[in-house]
Amino acid sequence: MKNPFPAIFLILILSFASSTAADSISRLIQIQDRERASPSVQEAAARAVLRRLLPSHSSSFHFRIVSKAFLIEGTTGVDIVAGLHWYLKHWCGSHISWDKTGGSQLFSVPNAGFLPRVHHAGVSVQRTVPWSYYQNAVTSSYSFAWWDWQRWEREIDWMALQGVNLPLAFTGQEAIWQKVFQEKFNMSISDLDDFFGGPAFLAWSRMGNLHGWGGPLPQSWFDQQLILQKKILNRMYELGMTPVLPAFSGNVPAALKYIFPSAKITRLGNWFSVKNDLKWCCTYLLDATDSLFIEIGKAFIEKQLQEYGRTSHIYNCDTFDENTPPIDDPEYISSLGAATFKGMQSGDDDAVWLMQGWLFSYDPFWRPPQMKALLHSVPVGKLVVLDLCMLHNFAGNIEMYGILDAIASGPIDARNSINSTMAIGMSMEGIEQNPIVYDLMSEMAFQDKKIDVKAWVDVYSTRRYGQPLPLIQEGWNVLYHTIYNCTDGAYDKNRDVIVAFPDVDPSLISLQHERSRQYDKPKSRTIIKEITDQFETPHLWYSTSKVIYALKLFITSGDELSRCNTYRYDLVDLTRQVLAKYANELFFKVVEAYQSHDVHGMTLLSQRFLDLVEDLDTLLACHDGFLLGPWLESAKQLAQNEEQERQFEWNARTQITMWFDNSVEEASLLRDYGNKYWSGLLHDYYGPRAAIYFKYLRESLEQGEDFKLLEWRREWIKLTNGWQSRRNIFPVESRGDALNTSRWLFNKYLDPSNPETKLILEY
């Protein structure tokens, strides 16, 4: 029977749980409420998101923002868009994700006029905390570096649908700094050329980690990014978001010490540069006690207000993120914090400082006296610390929540207590991966009860693919219990051998045997005989045999789901994961054969490894989310001329390979940190690199000589530097059948009944 109602009214109460917030934060929220775009503007912005997401249903939903004193459909544009997502997710069984991770599954949404009805009293969904935070200081470079407005518009839509209302907004700040230093502090464009990093490395020049690397920035970049930032901010404000703008932390151009010779400026230590190369490292810090500090901080805030026309009063400043202060005197630390905040407040009376708490965990410099000095240097309620350490607690790092709270809380007043939880969110270095994690994490901002994750995962698989399939649900539950719910290990940065190849003499690798969780056979556990920075052992914290079983379930369900883009992404990703761990084991078998002086075995196994790299490249080519081409082409599309194309492409290629500087015989200390499993990259770079290493292994055995480590390094570094400067073009669209390719690779490498597979596993 046709629904007699032409439209659905979904009443969502998405109010702030401000009773738990400090009075000053509550006051800030009140200010933001007064300064938000008008209800009509936010409603229009929400309707525009719906038109882009579900154009066929644009008349099926009515959005309305009313005063909190009455029945509430939504308190901001973000809230009513999040309400739309809540309805589509929980009533229509849909799923929303990034295009690269399979996109959105919306075919489960009934046609207009047949949408599931909501109870006439409405549905109350309340935020558990005022803010849903999003981004990391480096996401802007690892993921957003080459985005145009079209891509940014889709991302802001995604943010609103997930309920994100506190995103970082860092784009275009170099243009603001250029104007500030030129107009207020008598610097020329050439004075600033060495201050900014290249387009792919701006996050780290902003934090004072490096300078000049990948630059200089052309003027067109400054102009384009400023225009883009204004569009980003306008849309965020239209939706009622609270974009977080940057603030001054003390990082200054070298030219400032010549223009103001009496200024107190010190040079920071080396940050991962080979041989402390001053051309790229050791940036300049203006002392907080210098009168210029507050003057520059104020000028920067005021220029942003002038260019953007408004602010949401929250500013991010990460003092000494991955840089150690030159002095550990608590009084100095306190003066630095006070001056940093004073610079913000001088430009905006209602300023609130937001900072990452990551530095308190990884840097031993920050002992309780130094931490207390910084936290107590800012007025009560004016500092928000993101406890990123909590996100890394399962990775073996100490949880800082209680420590920071104890330090921040004074004996009388509750200082900037971390105990007043103001936000929940996601602070990943890069996005467009692991869609299940983002789906669950974004929902947590609206859940006030513990979630039954097993039940949630069952529903997730149905929403993700648009239909319930028992084998797929079983597969996801295996993955949840095996990988996501692990308790006997830790998540680690991707150090798989293929994408982070060992730079180490194979004689230093000690192979000891223990029972394997992979094939229930003796497993090689890798230990380095000597302390070395050249090889970080791949980390495996789960039973690979169980993940292989999950992959088998996914493949078995393929005939029913092969047309589903979300399924194809997950299938490629899961197959990649399994074969990457297989490659790690294969590499150690190569080393074992080398140490046994088995030339034939070493040659056979190393060729098997290289074949696997090529096969993985073929697999990854089956989905748009695993291609190198779009990353490089998006970089080139922002260029105005041939010279800029070369520079931007070099930036894009360098970030995902060598990353930072190197010498002829010494690779970058950050090599492979930005590694990617992308088709094109495996075939064109990772495979040839591994082939060079295996060549020197074979020559060592055949000639009865030690492994030529320096020669290997020279040839590998030469390959890498050459690849960084190459201009060859890679596909921007996928090719190949994901299901057939996954089946083929499973049979080739993982099926024990395959004689060739059995031979390799038992070798």
From TrEMBL:
<feature type="domain" description="Alpha-N-acetylglucosaminidase tim-barrel">
    <location>
        <begin position="389"/>
        <end position="447"/>
    </location>
</feature>
<protein>
    <submittedName>
        <fullName>Alpha-N-acetylglucosaminidase</fullName>
    </submittedName>
</protein>
<feature type="domain" description="Alpha-N-acetylglucosaminidase C-terminal">
    <location>
        <begin position="456"/>
        <end position="748"/>
    </location>
</feature>
<dbReference type="InterPro" id="IPR024732">
    <property type="entry name" value="NAGLU_C"/>
</dbReference>
<dbReference type="InterPro" id="IPR024733">
    <property type="entry name" value="NAGLU_tim-barrel"/>
</dbReference>
<feature type="domain" description="Alpha-N-acetylglucosaminidase N-terminal">
    <location>
        <begin position="44"/>
        <end position="116"/>
    </location>
</feature>
<keyword id="KW-0732">Signal</keyword>
<dbReference type="Pfam" id="PF12972">
    <property type="entry name" value="NAGLU_C"/>
</dbReference>
<dbReference type="InterPro" id="IPR024240">
    <property type="entry name" value="NAGLU_N"/>
</dbReference>
<dbReference type="Pfam" id="PF05089">
    <property type="entry name" value="NAGLU"/>
</dbReference>
<feature type="signal peptide">
    <location>
        <begin position="1"/>
        <end position="22"/>
    </location>
</feature>
<dbReference type="GO" id="GO:0016787">
    <property type="term" value="F:hydrolase activity"/>
</dbReference>
<dbReference type="InterPro" id="IPR007781">
    <property type="entry name" value="NAGLU"/>
</dbReference>
<keyword id="KW-0378">Hydrolase</keyword>
<dbReference type="Pfam" id="PF12971">
    <property type="entry name" value="NAGLU_N"/>
</dbReference>
<feature type="domain" description="Alpha-N-acetylglucosaminidase tim-barrel">
    <location>
        <begin position="133"/>
        <end position="388"/>
    </location>
</feature>
<dbReference type="InterPro" id="IPR029018">
    <property type="entry name" value="Hex-like_dom2"/>
</dbReference>
